[in-house]
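Morning F.,

Quick status update on the modeling queue. The single chain you submitted on Monday has been processed. Sequence for confirmation:
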Amino acid sequence: MPRFFCPLPLAIGQTVSLPDAVVHHVQVLRLAQGDLITLFNGEGGEYTAALTELARRSASAEVRDHTAREVELPFALTLVQGVPEGSKMDWIVEKAVELGVSAIVPLTARRSVVRLSGERAEKRLAHWQGVVVSASEQCGRNRLATVAPVQDVQRWLAVPAAGSQRILLSPRAQQSLAHWARSTAPCPVDLLVGPEGGYSDEEEAAAMAAGALPLSMGPRVLRTETAGLAAAAMLAAAWGGI
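Structure tokens below.
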């Protein structure tokens, strides 16, 4: 059954006018009146609805049932990602959503190749939020991961962690993430991943001064678009969620 994000109040028995983006997908899929679709609004669970009216630029559906279905990780996981070049960030956001990451914080650092600010940063943020919606529709999540505005790593580190364990992924760390996870009870985690070239020595020192625990991903050096996702999968395997 096709799944669509519908950012509207939903209730059984209600007939809703579907958002333009959903109307477009309904038309692309060539759905017809009476076909069933799944809607979710990010507030929990999902709804079964039947298409009641289809027009060239509009569509409506009657909400018929609600299922309190959730596939979230049993712990909060934030990916604090140094923004990479090209379209790599799109791929990272998409896969992070599939792996259950609940929040994504894009950072710029000393070695960052990409510098985003002003209108360009706002457009990229809106684009990444769209990637979150599409990935959530595809993977079955009923709650949307948040994407924070792009910010400097020092600015992010200056804000105290709100009850989460900050983890700095570093090839120079002596302890591995896998070993730490096996010996630690599940808890909220902020995964700090550097851009191409990693964080500078000064940035790593600042991260550790801000409470970040340096951990490695093993003997191989992973690329920026691999490290955070591999770490997220590793934590889910150790603490539940896979």
